[in-house]
Every structure is written in C-alpha cells, then in structure tokens.
Model the fold of this input.
Amino acid sequence: MGFVRNASALPTLSHTTIQPSDIGIRGPRYNGPMPGGRHFLQVPGPTNVPFQVTSALATPTIDHRGPQFRELATDVLQRVKAVFGTTQPVVIYPSSGTGAWEAALVNTLCPGDRVLAFETGHFATLWSELASSLGLRVDLIPGDWRHGVDPSLIAQRLTEDRNGDIAAVCVVHNETSTGVLSRMADIRSVLDEVDHPALLMVDTISSLGSAPYFHDGWNVDVTIGGSQKGLMLPPGLAFNAVSTRALERARSARLQRGYWDWTPMLDANSRGLFPYTPATNMLFGLQAALTMLESEGHANVYARHERLASATRAAVQRWGLELVCSDDREYSPSLTAVMLPEGADADALRATILDRFDLSLGAGLGRLAGRVFRIGHLGHIGELELLGTLAGVQAGLQHCGLEVDPQGIVAAVEVLSR
Ligand SMILES: *Cc1c(COP(=O)(O)O)cnc(C)c1O
Done:
C-alpha cells in the first residue's frame, strides 16, 4: 500500500468511475478526494532525492571505459573524501550498505578472528550476524537499544584481551533503529588509552553527510557508507573509506573475497576505472549531490541537521511522548525515534498517516516493532518540510485518538524561529 503500487497489486475495476485508489495513487483505505502536493518520504532512508540529483541520474549512460567516464570517476572518487573526513582512498561499490559491511570484514580479517560489537539496536545486530555468518567469532556486548556504544566497555574488553585476540571493533555510528548517535570522539580516546592493535570499523550509513565525521581524525580503519540516506541519492551505492593500516591488514586477510576485494578496485580506480561495470548513472548522481553539499558547505549541512533534529525533539517532548534515545549526549541529527504509550499501535498510526497525508514514517524495527515510529529528518530537507512532517504526525496522533499536547508543533516552530 505505497504511493505507487505495481500493476499486479491493482484492484480489479468494478466501478464506472475510476477512483484514485483504483489506480494506486492512494492507499486502498482512503476514499476521499485525491489531494494535491507531493509525497513526503520521511523514513530515515531512503530519503528525498533532489531535482539536481534526479536530473543527473537521467544523463544518458556513457561508455565506462571512455574518457568522459574517467573524468567522472576521478572527480567523484576525489570529492567524496571530504564527506568522510579523509585524504585516504574511498572505495565505491554498486551495492546496498550491507555489501559494504561485508567488504570491510572480508578484506581485513581471517576465519575465526574475534570481533567486538555492541548491540545498540537493529542495525548493529544485523552487522554482527553477518560477521558470524562469515566465520568470525563475534563478542556482541548486550545493550538496551536506547544508548550508544559505552566507551568504557570498549576499554574494559580490550584491556582484558591480553593476547590481542580481538581483531576488530565494530561500531554503528548512528543507530538508525533507535535514533542514537554513538560518541566517536570518546570512543577514539579510550582506544588511544588502551593501545590495542584491533582495527576500528564504523558504519556511518545514516550519519554520513548528516553528522560531522572524521575518518582520519578519529583514526578509523574502515568507514562504511551508503548512498540512500544523508547523501540524497537513491539506494544503490555503498562505500568503504580505507586506512593505510587496513590496507596492510588486507595483505594477510584470509576470509574469502572476490567481488568485494579492494585490491583490483583501487588499482582500477587509480586510472579512473572500475574492475567491473560501475553504476555509471549513480556516479552522475553522486557528482550532483557532492556539488550540493559543497555549495551549502559541509559545516552548514551538519548545523541544519542539528537544528531540524532539535525542533523535532521539542515537538515530541511537548506532545508528551518519549524519545527512544535516553541520553541527551547521544541524540541523532538524522532521525528521531518516538515511543508510543503502552497499548498504542505505532504501525496503525503510520498507516493512518500514510493514507491520510501521504507521509511515510519509519517503522519500529526488531524488538521495537509496533511500539516505535521514526521520523527521518536527513538529506534533502528544509525547515518547512520538517514542519509539514511534524504537522502530519501531530494530526495523525490526534486522528488515532492519542492524547497529545497540540502545542507540539508550536514548540518546533519556536526552535526554528530562534
Ligand atoms: C540503512 C542502514 C543499513 C543498511 O543498509 P542497506 O543499504 O539496507 O543494506 C546499515 N546500517 C545502518 C546504520 C543503516 O542506517
């Protein structure tokens, strides 16, 4: 029941007059007149793709071995580095973010290696399951899905590991299921104190381009990114920013790797090429997105996300609802996860809001399913679009009979008018 359904899901037409719901423009439960205006895609990825990017994506495909492609590849491979805060190589895969998780592990580790991971939420759990399936031994430190990685636990585990068995520490920077941003600077400090040889791998799929990030400054070995969140692109590209230390480790890493191997990729990239057919049009889109980020200014982009996030939290708190994130040092700039009171159905709320206002919100994932909904405020979004989103949420809450303070939207306006 999305905005546009596929043809096989269309209902058979039994009326003489075709209703909007018959052609899949609206959800089937909505019987009112067809409203104007655009769809609001406020899930925390994929995000709204701006016109500058969609038009770049529509560029006729070029020969990926020709001179124009080399120019494109050389340009994006260079300019994407600023988003990661690095001068080191960034590998670009035609893949989902999950592929880049796998790439980080298979390029650097050996079968049976121990990996330290933290159960911050759904995505951290999925990454650790992927690591186990590859034959790694994962120490998943349990968490309550309301906090980020506790830096003191990293210190403790690495200090206990006197033989240096732990080969990598895996951190999800922004846990998209909970709206919690782990404190990377503090994590870096404890890693420096314990001076352990483990590699540091960080998933920034939902923070890249939305929160300040320093791959070099924080001495991260592999940073994992994806296209469909803060980078304002459709799904389809994934990234590994790679440190010199990670490249050295890759020489002796023995996990099976083929498609994900950095070596042929970096070799081809150095000549403006890819070892297989690249996602050429996505690279045109990336080029346009990088131009947008550069012209707004990376620091301004981060400040805008911070501002939208704080207006969102003001609304949620005024409504009288609880944030999933329970540490005010760890609020996510890219999304806000909201807990509904016991007995309320977050999925029914989201379905109502989609039907009534054509606004998509993120579902509660994993153990938060049904209790939580998530408001994405990352990527291509401005203040008025956020206010429209929050107004849709408030109206939906009221429509579902949930008692919320209607001043919620006013609280958001107050933050944005400061
Ligand atoms: C979206 C997301 C992923 C998954 O990316 P896919 O493209 O769906 O494979 C992984 N980690 C985080 C933190 C995410 O937000």
Notes: Confidence is low (pLDDT under 50) at residues 1-29. The pocket of pyridoxal-5'-phosphate is lined by residues 45, 96-98, 123, 172, 176, 203, 205-206, 226, 235 (CB under 6 Å).
